[in-house]
């Protein structure tokens, strides 16, 4: 077995795998580069351009909270403006009608002698979750930023890119309730264990927490939280960036121990959350972390979901209730006797 | 692959599953030597190595004869299915929108739709500017209806303005919108349209692709792909003048064909599967229907021989929203699965289980996961059938089911699932594409070579599940007649009790004559009292379904669940009570 470390990341060759383990789906812990995509809509204003270098916290765009379409007259004669161009309140080159001076926004389309302009009163800032370079800006559509550092991939995320100091509210199998959160957590990205409910998410938002990292978020909690967010956005004040990163899915299980080891090594450091692709952004060098043993596997699904242990041997096709034949492997989970687990329910870490 | 090759690897690379099959010519005949399936995240080469190792261990002599140790260098037949491309469908009115969106749905696109009647220009612009949108279909009736005339000019301006910002978009103008093509700045007009809809084979019915030696297959390679990257960002918009949403038989089929061609890649697994279905129908001389339920979409293909000359007619539809669990898991999906579920789960828990199934399609395929998958498969099949009514009739001689979801249940339970949804009076043989060979075989461009492989492999590629017989019009009562099955092993007599299911054991490879004697006239292909039906055996035997046509289920969830579970338990040994 040979394990080598590159920049603090443990890397293992595929040929070092125990027999049969190559058929277990690999879960790649760290990715680089992280190319974040930020969704924009018509009327949203990009504040950076392609090739521009940004730092953590640099405003990337202003997202209109309640965009509307208003009319503005076209310029007399040949109007050089194109759909997607920005129109400022003073735009008009001295030839505008009086109404044009009162409209600022993005030109959407022209109908006859009038432009339809996307505009709005309140906008929310979108900030860079880390340092990087803006690769593309598609006005009204999206922008792409190649971020420095590594990404720890999740299953899905909600919210907008954010950053904060990584902190822990519970252990990897725990659960945080609203009463367990206070103002002392403001500015942090909180790791909250196996599961979180909508009430805790809403309170975390209100307490100034910048992000939540959790293993599972049930659909009902996600919808309740989204409804709460919509109500928040009906208010006039600006909201700080906030995101929830879900590491595994919707059904409760503890955070995988190799992931938890990595997160614990990052405690107290500033990290970011990228929502598309869903990932924790780890800027700078990684601290030295122990690599999981080569035969380490985790059960993702089924009756042993969340348990971890060592791979013993492949079993080939095996019959599971109620009469389903699946490729299986023999795994020793913690103190238990070895059990047969379908390969598709397992994951290994690379 | 060429006719001289002696062996090949068939790879079906789906959104959820990777399947590897080893095929070789043994004794002058192509045979399936082995195969395996694994989650799509499993490295393909590792799966190939595993299958080869098993073959080497099982039959060293044969392995040496075909040089199985070097199988990784064999020619490969690769069929791929992946996430559906997204199209925005816009129309002046809701009436036109329904027809246009229906054509796009049946062409395998993931559809975002809006009409000028109900949606503002800002929301339409937002939809078109999404980076995952590859095409925009905008249309109106031809000629535009009175209520459309005042709307289509602005609609055309809106689409033209957005196309100017998204040069990678392909824009299709349908019906009355075609007159507004001049609003687009310097577009590239594709000439492929004429090839698709203007040069129909005179011997072919409109809307039906003929597959044979003179088949006009792959006619639209000229259309630039819209999946993924698409044309370079600096290239002008590709503009297609599409047929009206009512053109063809059935209405909309010409537009559907164009949209299907526009979406598909050369190795598209579902198109290949449709082509292989036609080859299979031609070889068997039977009407064959393929029902595939996949992670990112579903296929329904019907093929039938068209007289002399070895020609086969083919009709098919690919439907993204008939995926096993569409993304996102919306209320309609949850309701659909809840209607077929035998598990005591409330809506929230079921939604979570489905969301998890979407994220990890192979997760927990055993235990509760198996009946959950069958409920999701029924719901997906229901969506597929609802969106493709033109393919319902006549009843096929053979139904081939494909997709990993069917592998979790025994043959009789699969037959029951199909019979639950497809309530067509008649007798149909059922088979499972267990090695997922239809897709890879369909990628063979040479018709003769494809036919040769299908003819040789027909017994290997289809696992016979049995025969499903559904009479319609039974009167309620204690007994509506008698069934006598004359098989080689003996004769079986059964009372036909309305509302129930009868299973006659008939092993794979055997056939029998089933004599039905009903007290009152029923519909079983035709209307009558006495029927003699040839039935084929399979893993599930012969399933005689005497339930209502269409199926009536209790409104109360607990009673419906009990009834569905009782039917399923009777045919699925090992399923818990």
Features:
heterodimer; A: 350 residues; SH3 type barrels; OB fold (Dihydrolipoamide Acetyltransferase, E2P); nine-stranded mixed beta sheet; 30 strands; B: 577 residues; alpha/beta; Rossmann fold; 3 domains
How would you describe the shape of chain B? globular
Order of strands in the sheet with most strands of chain A:
4-16-25-24-18-20-22-23-17
CATH architecture term of the largest domain in chain A: 3-Layer(bba) Sandwich
Rough outline of chain A: elongated
Low-confidence segments of chain B: 191-207, 210-234
The termini of chain A sit apart by 14 Å
Q: Averaging pLDDT over every residue of chain B, what do you get?
A: 88
Q: How many domains in all of chain B?
A: 3
CATH class of the largest domain in chain A: Alpha Beta
Q: Strand content of the residues of chain A, in percent?
A: 35-45%
Compile the SSE list and pairings.
The complex is a heterodimer of chains A (350) and B (577).
Chain A: E1 3-6, E2 9-12, E3 26-27, E4 30-31, E5 34-39, E6 45-46, E7 53-54, E8 59-64, E9 68-73, E10 86-87, E11 105-111, E12 114-119, E13 123-127, E14 132-138, E15 142-147, E16 150-153, E17 156-159, E18 162-168, E19 175-176, E20 188-191, E21 195-196, H1 198-206, E22 211-216, H2 219-233, E23 243-249, H3 257-265, E24 270-275, E25 278-282, E26 296-299, E27 308-320, E28 324-333, E29 339-342, E30 346-349
Parallel strand pairs in A: 3-30, 18-20, 19-21, 20-22, 22-23
Antiparallel strand pairs in A: 1-2, 4-16, 5-15, 6-8, 7-14, 8-13, 9-12, 10-11, 11-12, 14-15, 16-25, 17-23, 18-24, 24-25, 26-27, 26-30, 27-28, 28-29
Helix pairs in contact in A: 1-2
Chain B: E1 7-13, E2 17-26, E3 29-39, H1 44-58, H2 60-65, E4 76-80, E5 86-91, H3 94-106, E6 110-115, H4 121-129, E7 133-140, H5 146-165, E8 170-175, E9 188-189, H6 192-197, E10 209-211, E11 238-242, H7 253-263, H8 269-284, E12 288-293, E13 298-305, E14 312-319, H9 331-338, H10 347-359, H11 369-387, E15 398-402, H12 411-421, E16 426-432, H13 438-442, H14 447-461, E17 463-470, E18 481-487, E19 490-495, E20 501-504, E21 511-524, E22 526-536, E23 542-545, H15 557-571
Parallel strand pairs in B: 1-4, 5-6, 5-7, 7-8, 8-11, 9-11, 12-15, 15-16, 17-23
Antiparallel strand pairs in B: 1-2, 2-3, 10-14, 12-13, 13-14, 16-17, 18-19, 18-21, 20-23, 21-22
